[in-house]
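Progress report, Aim 2. The chain analyzed during this reporting quarter is listed below.
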Amino acid sequence: MAVFARAPVPGRAKTRLSPVLGARGAAALQSALISDTIQKVRELSWRVDCYLFLAGRSALFCPPSHWRRAYQKGRSLGARLARAFGRLLANYQAVVIVGTDSPELSIRLLRQAWRELRTSDAV
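Predicted structure tokens for the chain:
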């Protein structure tokens, strides 16, 4: 299981919202979105290895201690996702990657994705 997110750095996170929230407010929102997504993943009823793939570096945001932190590499989002999937699929039979920009993402949907991967190559 992996969460894909931009590091919550003022001036670099949620830049389209900076005019309204300010750079620090936008970074705080990004941090809250990451935390919310991590909490949803933690609520899965079974154990999965978890990764936080950050775009950019942030010493201010640390994932839970049992999570692995990695950094996104690639010029485009598609390239970064492909690289992350490749890295994870080299070690795991199934991988789910979610972003942080969908606050309505439900635990039910995460569980459904894992169930679907039992019989499908991609969901």
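Helices lie at 18-42, 77-89, 107-117. The first strand starts at residue 2 and ends at 6. These observations will guide the mutagenesis work planned for the next reporting period.
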